[in-house]
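Predict fold of Penicillin-binding protein 2A; 736 aa.
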Amino acid sequence: MNMNWKIKEYLQHFSMKQKGLYIGIACISMFILGIVGYIFILFLGNYVIDEKKFVMNSATSLVDQNGQELTKLYVENRDVVSINNIPEHVQQAFISVEDMRFYEHHGIDLKAIGRALYRDILAGGKVEGGSTITQQLAKNIFLTNDKTLLRKTKEVVIAINLENRYSKKKLLEMYLNQIYFGHGAYGIQAASHLYFNRDVSELTVEQGALLAALPKAPNSYSPILHPDRSLQRRNVVLNSMQRAGYLSAEKVVRLQGRTLSIDVQQRVKEPAFLTYIDMVMEEAKIKYHLSNEELLKGGYKITVPMNRDAQKVAFDLFQENKYFPGTDDGVQGSFLLMDNQTGGVLSAIGGRDYVQKGLNRLQMKRQPGSTMKPLAVYGPALQEKLFKPYSLLEDQQTSYNGYTPRNIDGSYAGEVTMYDALKDSKNAPAVWALNELGIHKGKEYLNQLGMPIHDKGLAIALGGLDEGVTPLQLVSAYRSLATTGSTIEPYFIQKIEDRNHNIIAKAEKVERKVFSKQTAWYMTRMLEGVVEEGTASTGEFNGALAGKTGSTSYQAVKGATRDTWFVGYTPAVVGAVWMGYDKTDENHYLTKGSSHPTRLFKDILTQSSLKHATAFTQPKDTKDLEAPIRLHAVEDLSSNVTFKPLGLFTVKLEWTPSEDERVIYHVYEERNGEAELVAKVEGEGTYEIERVNVLNLPAYYVVPYNKQTKQQGKQSNEVIPAFFGNEQRLKQAEAS
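Predicted 3D structure, encoded as tokens:
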């Protein structure tokens, strides 16, 4: 019995030891497995976490030179912001309602999971989630919304690895920048601007609580769509902040008594900016190798030279049919305005009904008409010293191997100054001058001006080109006349900064010298004349303006116009307006000419906030161009004979002189049918001839003379002086 009892006791003791050993081994195994599992989870993290996915899509901002935002480009409207710029009370609002133990757990909150399971069991369904902020970040960035065990397992693995790699502050920063707040706003900065029109750093406690209320159901709790629900949900968040110890009960009561106080700033794409935005995106792609997709996601800040006011004024005026004369309301147009000094484009309109990524008429080639005369003919002729502004050009209907240019008005003066040929846009003198200059020489200058053409005929002088040119090309070329003879490359992007505020691209001033300062100044003076008294005199503009009109005919319909232009510049800006149909036919053509784009150009400048100088500044070391001398016929020449003690008998001639004191009057004495020049009188209307023989008095007449052109005007009436001044024989002279 004793032996059996001892054996039994021994066996029981041995069994207890064995059980303890097994338990110990099991505990050690579980510990080892836990360590191995944890290491395995960390090892898996290297495969499931792609850090490139943390680079969030960010909106690119377009701002003007004053830093004012013009628009945003984005796939997701998000402005990434540092956690240091997010107030502590805003962070606390999100932690209170989304993950109260955020700073205590390591990615997985077992207490929260247990509590959620317990409440789900009591409710008989899922009523509470146990996901931490880190798990939500893992799901939103790396996973889908599929409710599967595999997806949940991945979420846990990723969350643990995220906690191991990043600080809590960094995880919270990524979460607040990543979540969706409704109405197209991604991230807390974009949401703050959308709902409160303020930076996130300026949010109050109750505003932060409202934003924290949204991620659970952005549409259901939208303060725009459902203000009552939104208010209730905000107050729930404030209660959560009290339970978490962030707010006192009294503070919560006071805050819950406040209204939503939202100041919604929903972004609407400004239609006036559509052309400009497309030109910016195209320039970023071609010049700086940034794709459109990268711009929409990269969070860049692009500074552009746009003048917001000029852009909107141009857009609004382009909607008015009165400026666009056609057979119907389908007339199209384009407009470009550029800063003379920098080349920055201030305004761009690609069409009256331009749609994003649509047909951009600033890039379409059209026949430029007479806007080509200063560039292909007169500028080069001055530069080559072939002619001067008041040189006489042949103005006759002449055939050049079958090509016979005609003046629009059908009249020909025989000879006309370059100044007047340009002012009145005469065709015959322009073609004659190009023929004298040489077609090859004119094309050389066009090539230097950035307008290479393959045309070989004299029609180049009148803008009759096979392919035509674009408004961009014309504006760049006319800039050479507006300054000191150099073209400049227009640009739409002044600089590009990345999301870290590093400048990664900047516009460079690309100029090409074509004309001398003297040639440019002469052309400016002549083009001022075009605006003041020539074909571009239509409309009103209170400032210095030089420019040239142009139009091309549609031959199928008498009097119809295909294209019409005005290209002009002030001391500060240079621009162009084109009008026409995208496709001209017998039912679609312009019914008026260049007066309409001229008036539109002047109205845009007048109604915008651009400052305009009253005069061009003459470049140093250049000769000025005097205004043209205009000769007027003398029809009131009179004379008398008086006696002077020393001069004996004196003939005094009198006439009404021109207001222009530069006019010279040649005084002629005629005897026996032969005339002799006896005097030259400048700027006056009297002349005396002393010691005359009263018994044999000749006849006299005067002829006005233009010293600029070396041309005489019409001969005056002829007079024969009488001794007492009471008897005169007047004989009307024939025109010389």
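The first strand starts at residue 60 and ends at 63.
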